[in-house]
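Notes, Module 5: Reading structure tokens.

Key idea: the token line is not a picture. It is a compressed description, and you learn to read it the same way you learned to read a sequence, by spotting repeated patterns. We will look at two proteins. The first is printed below with its tokens.
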Amino acid sequence: MIPLLLQRIISGVGGNPPMAKEDAARRILTADPFDLVLHMEQLWDVSKPWGAIPAAGPGRRAFYGIGEFASYVPTDLPAWDHLGYSYVLENTRIVQILRRVVREYRSGEGLGLPSIETQRWLDVTEALLFGAANPVPSWLSTSVIRQDPEAVRRNAYWRFFGLDLAFGTDDNRPPVYDKATATNTGFVRLLEELLFELWQAMTNVRNIAGANASDDDRIFRIAEELGYILRSRRQKSTLKREELAAATVLGWAELTVAINSSLVSDLSATATNPATRLQLIGERVGLAAHSKSAAFFSMAADLSVLLYTIEAGVVSGPEFAWVLYMEQLPPGKVGKPIGAESRRVITEWAAATGKDLKVRAKAVETTSRPRVVAAA
């Protein structure tokens, strides 16, 4: 949600004047948390999670028009990033590090005195990430039953990807969360096999004289299987609210270190990239960021595009496999290729996992599945 809102502010959609990136980022980082919650709720409503049934009642919808970001609500979907975006960003340990930052600032002066702008950031972060005086608590997907928002996200990651985060709690205890039995344990092997096939196809796009090792039919079969298992977790809009909550939390955290924000400056963590800023902030609060944070930050947005494209069933046959590996629209074709995004995911996934995706591992078996369309 946050990165897409940032782009809409920069572009000046909805009749608004365009704005420079850093000015747009600071506008969001110092916004009233209620305005950000209203924007999130409006995105939830326009996504029509339950089809013709309204997502919000007339009372809540009446608030939408008075929110600061009401004019930036998109008309196209998806309106927020895929859960894969949140998963890779959370693996940097950014939320746990920011949790320690908030705790240190709120409990004493060990980090120094925060600037006025940083105090505003603290107010918003406590409300958005940790539920302090949240006027619409349901968006965090937490309650007296699900009290820990990190545990809620871990549950969603497990169900969608068959994966947990790379670390335990912020005091290094094993994480405790409800671990569902219905989970996509085959996600990683399918994704990595697809990335291998896409790399072969990308290589052969530039190959004029040599043998062509690309296999559009296999790309289609793997993408079909991958799309099927992802859509199976979305039936009747299951986990959609959790995905939006995660995208907002991780988007806010990413924006905090995307620029030399007031918090970054107050903590003497100014740098040229988000991974280094996070590393320096982690050192200030005694919690190390993941050593592969640069790869996670780099691939997050592109992984979102790739997974949404696969889920949407754009590659509905071998003749559409080019969408996933071409960077320019081929002659006579119609559509939007995402080869540049796929290439970035291949590079950064390999860097983060240490796996050479350009060399075939044991080939995975794919199963012909009925084509299931995700519920609206």
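Here is the second protein, with the sequence above and the tokens below, as before.
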Amino acid sequence: MTVRIHFLPDDVMVDAQVGEPLLDVADRAGVSIPTGCLMGSCHACTVELEDGDVIRACISAVPPGREEVTINLFSDPTW
């Protein structure tokens, strides 16, 4: 199943497959998400979904059951 991923604030949209790693989707779309440990513990890759949930992109994948997912990128000045 294909899900449309909408990256903010750059307003970039890309289609992705359910279960595809979010970092791979972002890379394919030309969107940079900072990373650190790649295990979710350093929180460098923290992003916010449209419903307010905060996730770590390095350990997250495209979720099932949705036609579109909006991901708000915000930068942490320490990274």
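Summary for the second protein:
- The chain is about 10% helix and 35% strand.
- The longest strand covers residues 2-8.
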